[in-house]
Specification:
Blueprint (H helix, E strand, L loop, with lengths): L1 H15 L5 H25 L6 H6 L2 H32 E2 L3 H7 L8 H12 L4 H10 L15 H26 L2 H9 L4 H30 L2 H6 L4 H11 L3 H25 L18 E2 L2 H32 L3 H39 L2 H11 L6 H27 L11 H25 L3 H9 L4 H12 L1 H17 L2 H6 L7 H10 L3 H27 L14
Parallel strand pairs: 1-2
Helix pairs in contact: 1-19, 2-13, 2-15, 2-16, 2-17, 4-8, 4-10, 4-14, 6-8, 6-14, 8-10, 9-10, 10-13, 12-13, 13-17, 14-24, 15-16, 15-18, 15-21, 15-24, 17-18, 18-21, 21-24, 23-24
Length: 568
């Protein structure tokens, strides 16, 4: 009955409205603006003012492609092994520390890759404390007396990114393991499969779609990284775009490299969808059962603890302790005052971006709700595609777009009024904010859409029957019900903006620093101690989404016990 009323209400609402109302027009306009930076990159790449493409192909392009592929493969394999194995152990096994690791495995997500790279370089390089201690113990006098792995290398970059990106795979694989059918596992055990064979034969294939999504996110974050590869001098596309644009002063060449980088992204997206095209799993039981816990006694239990603790210690606890020690040792009131100014810049930019992103998401999600149709669905998907595009690529597109806009306004002002307007948008806070919106709009849009979808259409019909229009219905009915989700969306965008480095480095105004750019600058100058307080601030902010994700994953399986570690 209720569903019939909802369907009828939906039909009546859509019948009364014109095809193109204010909500729909706003959504289409937003999607167009969000796609312009990517279009600008493609256009300039195809019509360069100074074509250096043959030079790039014959010199640096093969190295960029090879290095980027090796980096992606290495990080993908590393995160796959750590994320899936720990996700299965934490979900299905009982061992010492299980309750902590359920959420503690996500802590490295709060640590930006470039921060952990600075820390381990400081610890592991030739002049660092570890090699110094080894030379003192064994009596070595020079580097020729022993071999030690080079941290500032491609292998080092793979290790650093793996330590902070594996939570993406862990998060999604554990969610998939939590949702699996107990009946399927019991059937596997009844056929003589042990717990570990059941994992490889049953659980792993069923979790494959979620794992593929996690790996895709990891690879996209790997493509987006700038701080780590720049500090380690690893020639990836992100570093190449920065070098060609700012050091060689050739925007067209940067756009051409960005276009090749976009092909990597397109390949990743299509590969992920192709891999999941025929993957379907349905739990036919209407009743959820508690997952059977595999008890690991004695040594096996402590080995499981060690397996889960190692990535957490290396990816979060040790770097955090080092930063705290450095901040204590390099405490400087004058420098702290400077850091406070940079923190204010980061907070201001991130807050503006978070609030505006949520407002835009509300407009687009609500337009799709009241109007529907394939056009609005496509507009929402176009607006959200910026999250899959690396920050360096978007930065190039934003600068091209805003630069052309500034030149157009300046040309009109010169012809009509006889004065120059200069740069209005390029190299300003507006450019950085716009770049943040394009890149992180998907976070707010996804959260708002999910929340709005939980509000029944009966509420819309009731509001309209009381004489409320679409805007009043949204303001009086939907927004109060979505308050928590809206705050979550603002927070997610805020945190990602605080950590964003490649886009900020390229788009920021002259002599304008955020916490991320400040840490990058000082660490590049071998002054990590002076930047430790700023790095700690970034890590502290990054813990917020970890808490949210921990709460979400704990509730992902209806009927799942809150304390499975105490037995079935």
């Amino acid at each position: 009955m209720a569903s019939d009323i909802a369907i009828g209400t939906e039909k009546r609402m859509k019948k009364r409205r014109p095809w193109l109302d204010g909500w729909t027009a706003g959504a289409i306009l937003i999607a167009t603006l969000a796609s312009l930076p990517i279009i600008a990159v493609g256009y300039l790449a195809l019509t360069p003012e100074e074509n250096i493409w043959p030079h790039l192909v014959s010199t640096v392009l093969p190295d960029y492609i090879t290095t980027t592929l090796i980096l992606m493969i290495g990080v993908g394999i590393g995160t796959l092994i750590i994320g899936v194995s720990t996700g299965w152990i934490v979900t299905m096994c009982r061992f010492p520390g299980k309750r902590f690791f359920e959420w503690g495995m996500l802590l490295p997500m709060a640590m930006p890759a470039y921060v952990i790279a600075y820390i381990y370089t400081d610890i592991l390089e030739y002049a660092g404390p570890l090699q110094g201690m080894l030379r003192e113990i064994f009596g070595w006098t020079s580097k020729r007396d022993y071999w030690f792995p080079e941290i500032r290398s491609l292998g080092g970059a793979i290790a650093m990114m793996t330590l902070v990106l594996y939570p993406y795979v862990y998060l999604l694989s554990r969610a998939a393991f939590l949702e699996q059918s107990v009946g399927v596992l019991e059937a596997s055990r009844a056929l003589g499969r042990g717990p570990w064979r059941s994992f490889f034969v049953v659980a792993l294939p069923l979790a494959r779609p979620a794992i593929v999504i996690g790996i895709s996110l990891v690879l996209m974050e790997t493509l987006n990284d700038f701080g780590t590869v720049d500090f380690f001098a690893v020639n990836t596309f992100s570093l190449g775009i920065y070098d060609v644009w700012l050091n060689m002063n050739n925007v067209s060449g940067a756009a051409q490299l960005a276009s090749v980088m976009l092909l990597f992204v397109v390949f990743l997206v299509l590969s992920e969808r192709f891999a999941r095209r025929k993957q379907r799993f349905h739990n036919t039981s209407s009743k959820y059962q508690e997952l059977p816990g595999i008890h690991l006694p004695g040594r096996r239990g402590w080995l499981a603890t060690l397996a889960c603790a190692t990535p957490v210690v290396l990816g979060f606890l040790m770097p955090t302790i080092v930063l705290i020690v450095y901040a204590w040792q390099h405490w400087d009131p004058e420098l702290n005052a400077e850091i406070a100014g940079h923190a204010w810049n980061s907070i201001r930019l991130s807050t503006i971006a978070g609030v505006v992103a949520v407002l835009i998401a509300i407009v687009m999600a609500y337009a799709a709700r009241i109007q529907g149709g394939k056009i609005l669905l496509a507009a929402n998907r176009v607006a959200a595609m910026g999250y899959a595009v690396p920050g360096a690529v978007l930065a190039v597109g934003v600068m091209i777009m805003l630069g052309n806009l500034d030149n157009g306004i300046d040309g009109i002002a010169r012809e009509q009024f006889g004065f120059s307007t200069g740069l209005i948008f390029s190299g300003t806070i507006a450019a950085v904010t716009f770049g943040y919106l394009v890149r992180f709009l998907a976070l707010s849009l996804g959260t708002v859409e999910a929340s709005l979808g939980k509000v029944t259409l009966n509420m819309d019909g009731a509001s309209r029957s009381l004489g409320r229009g679409t805007f009043a219905t949204m303001r009086l009915v939907h927004l109060p019900l979505m308050r928590t989700s809206i705050l979550t969306a603002v927070m997610l965008v805020f945190v990602d903006c605080m950590k964003e480095l490649p886009m900020t480095v390229i788009l920021r105004p002259f002599n304008f620093q955020t916490l991320a750019t400040f840490v990058h600058q000082y660490a590049s100058d071998e002054q990590l101690g002076d930047a430790s307080l700023a790095a700690l601030s970034i890590v502290g902010v990054g813990i917020i989404p970890v808490i949210v994700l921990s709460l979400a994953i704990a509730k992902s399986r209806p009927g799942h016990s809150k304390d499975m570690s105490q037995g079935n």
